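User: I want to check something. If I give you two sequences, will you return the structure for each one separately, not as a complex?

Assistant: Yes, each is folded on its own. Here is the first sequence with its structure:
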Amino acid sequence: MIIDIHSHAYKYPNEFGTRFLSPEELIERYDMLGIDKAVLLPVVSPEIYLPQSVDEILEICKTYPDRFIPYCNVDPRALTNSNTAPLYKVLEYYKNKGCKGVGEVMPNMPLMHPMVQNLFAAAEAVELPIVYDGSDQLTGDFGLYDDPGLPQLEHTLQRFPKLKIFGHGPVFWSELGKLKTPGSRGYIFNIKGDDQVGKLPDGKIEEEGTVPILLRRYENLYCDLSDGTPTAMLRRDLEYTAKFFKEFQDRLYFGTDFCNIKSDLRPMVNFYKELLEKGYITQEIYDKVMYKNAMKLLDIKE
């Protein structure tokens, strides 16, 4: 079995920004890849994509209950555009409708912004895990801003010790090893705004970065393996990856971040099979990462 912890679908895909998949198109791709179930994350912030409603995700999941699991999401600026907005009421409402988590949180605001912290507090209060995407800039981008070394993530982990926080995306995974330059933490849109440029870290992991240190320090930090970034970072040094997977096997979750109909995610799925076949990870670790950890998190029965 394979469970995708992080995916997207639009009931009525549009051509603005990126062309997401419809539920039917996503299921067709999953059948080709051998993926059995997926968490669908609603896109609600407008920085890069046209927003969609949580109810659209719930409707998709109701249509295909054996394939999709709903998350809810709310922009931290919603309701009152203040840090006193009763966002917990929104999350509680959708939790009662069957949503299993919150995300993908991706407005271009500092992670420690009071309104963002209000959303994280709400997620902790209603006992829902949260996944967010990050950024290394505060203009012309999407994602919660953090500084090199991820201090804002660390303070958030300290502030909300009962909240399961999933790190995701380039800004998080680029710090698997120690950074050589801050600019290698993420991509940037070119001057026309129609393509991303930049270079993430490569080469052997000569010294551990912030991510493994935070994982040891905070039990409420989890790893979302979706999009191509973690695969690229883990391929850098397979010997280190073997140690990383062994140490953090209970907090690693396979995902795709399927958000473009042109994407070919076979290399991503095959990477984890390769780790197993070449002996870098055991069958037990493979099963945890590919579906057992997700089953436990989402309370899915075999």
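And separately, the second sequence with its own structure:
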Amino acid sequence: MPSRLKDNLNSQYFDAANRLASKNRRKRIVAYVESYDDIYFWRTVLSRFEDDTRYFEVMLPSHKKLERGKKSVLMNIIRGERREERGESDAILGPSMIACVDADYDYLLQGVTSQSKCVIENPYVFHTYAYAIENLQCYAPSLHDVATGVTLNDHRIFDFRDYLRQYSEAIFPLFVWSVWIYRTGNHNRFSLTDMARVIDPGGFNVQTPQPSIEHLRRKVGTKVRQLQAEFPDNKEAYLATKQSIKDLGITPQTTYLYIQGHSLFDNVVVPIMNKVCNRLRQERQDEIQRTAVHHMQRRNEMSCYEHSLQDIRQMLKKNAGYTQAEPFLRILADVERFLNAEATPQEPSATQQTSPGT
């Protein structure tokens, strides 16, 4: 009996628990996420919707029906929906139990696969729109604040916005090819791993970042020409894919938000942050050396400063400066739409927003 009860933990289970609770008690909505790192992000999303009537509990799946990891979560949801269609059992998710996942390429695939269809159409599945949480943690307008938090030096020595804008524009033609390849099932011809290798900017100099952009453009151009030769009759399909990507709210200037998240984090942003923060630290240390009145003051000031420094990766992981990013605003709109639908007697909408203005 205990195992059967555990296996039937779904939205209806939590609906029943909410009905049994006191009328004055807030409704509990369970939000399942993919990994430990996701808990903080989805709390920043959902906490603003808590009030006297409801609260969210963000957690990892721990039972058979919702295993950890996006693929396991979504495949179980899809199987539950199919069983419900056959009248065999109820779907896993519902008004009291939702799933919150990275969009990856599922948003861009627009229902081509069953997993993509689940991500963009199930009203109880919420996704990041950006490829992953890491992309939002690397939101360009927030990176100066991150560098300041790491070094306690607010001197603007590097324009993160402009660099990531140029980086995005440089990789956009190849990004369009990547999306087309995944939509058509040709990912064995050019995988996300292959894409990550090409769009790694490589060497970078804080004072003269332009050469890294030029190097990147050459690499992208070479790969685009290779793909054009491999798919010579693809011009119309390429242009149609390019337009559909723009229709989804993705611009050449914001492409960095939609590429593989850990590649952006590890290969682009962290190396830049390391070099920028090293210069900012050196600036502050030079200032202490220059302005200290005597050796003891210099040593104490330097020790105090060095103990106040923060780790770049950890600061990025806790960066919540993405709250004005377009993908984040779209997540909020989806959650608000879900809550409004549940507050009215009619059935919730069958689909989530899949493009701006819908």
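Because they were folded independently, the notes below concern the second chain alone. The chain has 16 helices and four strands. The first strand starts at residue 27 and ends at 33.
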